[in-house]
Amino acid sequence: MTIDKIKNDIDSKLGDSVKIVYNGSRNKKEEYSGVITETYNFIFIIKTEGEKKSFSYRDVLTNTVEVFFD
């Protein structure tokens, strides 16, 4: 999988619901559910209930961020 493929997959899901699992340091995981609102060259943004979060395509490639589409 390449960054371009990941970007194209996320671009095609713009406006769809998504679940994000962020694998932080020391086995700390954070989960976010929201809608993909914007995509840019290096990041994409999801809107959760109270805030916006940005994630990079590189983090998806390295499995730091896992993306699950509904």
CATH architecture: Roll
Task: State the CATH topology.
Answer: SH3 type barrels
Mean pLDDT equals 94
Structural domains: how many:
1
SSE string, helices as H and strands as E: HEEEEHE
Task: Identify the strand order in the major beta sheet.
Answer: 4-3-2-1-5
N-to-C CA distance: 21 Å
Shape: globular
**What CATH first level would be assigned?**
Mainly Beta
- Describe the largest sheet: 5 strands, antiparallel
Oligomer: single chain
Radius of gyration: 11 Å
Beta strand %: over 45%
Total beta strand runs: 5
Which structural category do the helix and sheet elements fall into?
alpha+beta
Q: Count of DSSP helices?
A: 2
Q: Would you mind describing this structure in some detail?
A:
The protein is built from two helices and five strands. The chain has 70 residues and is of the alpha+beta class. It has a single domain (3-69), classed as Roll (SH3 type barrels), CATH 2.30.30.100. It has a five-stranded antiparallel sheet with strand order 4-3-2-1-5. A hairpin with a 5-residue loop joins strand 1 and strand 2. The longest helix has 10 residues, at 3-12. The chain is globular.
What's the structural blueprint in terms of helices and strands?
Blueprint: H1 3-12, E1 17-23, E2 29-39, E3 43-47, E4 52-56, H2 57-61, E5 65-69
Antiparallel strand pairs: 1-2, 1-5, 2-3, 3-4
